[in-house]
Each structure stands twice: as C-alpha cells, then as structure tokens.
C-alpha cells in the first residue's frame, strides 16, 4: 500500500470512555435532519474456545468459550437501557453467539450481514504463534512479502470499504436510534483507522480492540462526529489469538 491515505470521513480521534449515553428519540419532522443522532456500536465478539491456538479465520465450528459467553452477557447488560433497534452480526458462529443476548434483551432477532465477516487469511487453520507455528517454515515466508496490502490476506482497503458499507446501511435504517454490529478484531480496527484517516497497515500488538469491546460511531445526520471506545467486559491482550 502506498503512503497515500484513502478517502476518510473527518472525525476526532477516538476517546476511550464509557460507551455513549442512549441516543435521544428522533426529533419531529420540523427539526433539521442533520441534528438526528444515530449511534452505531461496532462490537468485537467474545472469547472463543480455541484450545489448539490456531488462526481459525472464517472456519466454521468455533463457538464462544465460557468466558466469551460471560463477556457477551456483560455487553448485553451494559446496553440494556439503550435504544437499540437493530442487532446485526457476522455470519460466523462466534459473532452470532455474541449478538444473541443483546438481541434478546431488546426483543430483537439477530440479523446477518456478510460484510461484517472476518478478514480472509491464507494462514487460516494453522498455528501462527511465534516460535512454534507456521511462520517458522520457509514455504510460508513468501506470503509475508508485503505487509502493506497485505500479501497474506484480504486487502485492508477492501475490509474498510465493506465494513463501512455495513455501517452506513444500518445507520440509515436505524436513524435516530442505536444499532449493534458484531464483527471481528481486524475488520473493526481497520474500519476505525480508515475513519480516522490513518494508514491501514499497522502493528497488530497495538490494536485498541479488546474482546467484546465497543467501538461506537456517533453520527449527527450523515456526519460522523465522534468515535468512542469502551470495554464493558474488561480488557484483553490484542495479540492473543483466542479471539
């Protein structure tokens, strides 16, 4: 990827704070539509049962661990008094299971959006831990030749565009209310960097995107005015692939 930045929506750097207060009810028709506040909470799924420590990517059959289910319940409690009108999740099992208690708390059905799916990765199904994983094997080194696109998986810009498409679709439908979109660490972090006008390639160890964390996008009309990061289920190590 070149050093030129993709077009991005102007927005302040994200605050690390409790997630935004519940959105106000939509104003009457005599109000300026640009004053309508809509909040899109982009939620990373909870911890996954992954005893073999593999990079599972889009593989089926990976469910939440006991801890992950507790994390999902904690997020549901934290959003219980919010005006949630939609809950939409990645099609992968861990995202659907994270979304379920939130939807139940608001008498909603979890909907699915393929644009929220995990990033594609050529190391899917392999162990990639430092010292004992696939990265020690020379046959895999060619995959690492370009960290900027990256060469080992779905392009960052493609991830950003599909995530933003999911956000915009939900935002329009839920105008004046709040919506929860359940996705995965790399897609959530890539979306945030895109919206903040930052380069998309980055050090994964520095991601601010804990398990079951919320990256809340606050819109006034069609304008993104704030990004608020919160951890209703507590912090976790972004470099751990239990995720």
From TrEMBL:
Protein's name according to its UniProt entry: Broad specificity phosphatase PhoE
Organism whose genome encodes this protein: Nocardia ignorata
Pfam families registered for this protein in UniProt: His_Phos_1
Upper classification of the organism: Bacteria, Bacillati, Actinomycetota, Actinomycetes, Mycobacteriales
InterPro entries: His_Pase_superF_clade-1 (IPR013078), His_PPase_superfam (IPR029033), PGM_Phosphatase (IPR050275)
Region Disordered, residue ranges: 1-34
Top-level taxon of the source organism: Bacteria
Molecular function via GO: phosphatase activity
Classification via SMART domains: PGAM
GO CC terms of this entry: cytoplasm
CDD domains in the cross-refs: HP_PGM_like
């Amino acid at each position: 990827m070149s050093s030129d930045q993709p077009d991005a929506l102007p927005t302040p750097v994200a605050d690390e704070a409790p997630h935004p207060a519940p959105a106000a009810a939509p104003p009457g028709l005599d109000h300026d539509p640009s004053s309508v506040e809509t909040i899109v909470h982009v939620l990373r799924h909870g911890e996954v049962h992954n005893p073999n420590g593999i990079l599972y990517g889009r593989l089926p059959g990976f469910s939440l661990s006991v801890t992950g289910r507790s994390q999902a319940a904690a997020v549901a409690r934290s959003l219980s008094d919010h005006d949630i009108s939609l809950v939409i999740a990645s099609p992968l099992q861990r995202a659907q299971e994270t979304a379920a208690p939130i939807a139940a708390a608001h008498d909603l059905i979890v909907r699915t959006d393929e644009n929220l799916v995990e990033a594609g990765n050529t190391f899917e199904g392999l162990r990639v831990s430092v010292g004992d994983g696939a990265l020690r094997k020379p046959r895999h080194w060619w995959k690492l030749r370009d960290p900027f696109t990256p060469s080992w998986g779905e392009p960052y810009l493609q991830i950003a565009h599909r995530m933003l498409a999911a956000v915009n679709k939900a935002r329009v439908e839920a105008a004046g209310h709040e919506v929860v979109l359940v996705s995965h660490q790399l897609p959530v972090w890539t979306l945030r960097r895109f919206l903040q006008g930052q380069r998309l390639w980055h050090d994964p160890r520095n991601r601010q995107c804990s398990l079951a964390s919320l990256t809340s996008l606050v819109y006034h009309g069609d304008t993104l005015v704030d990004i608020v990061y919160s951890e209703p289920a507590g912090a976790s190590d972004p470099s751990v692939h239990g995720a």
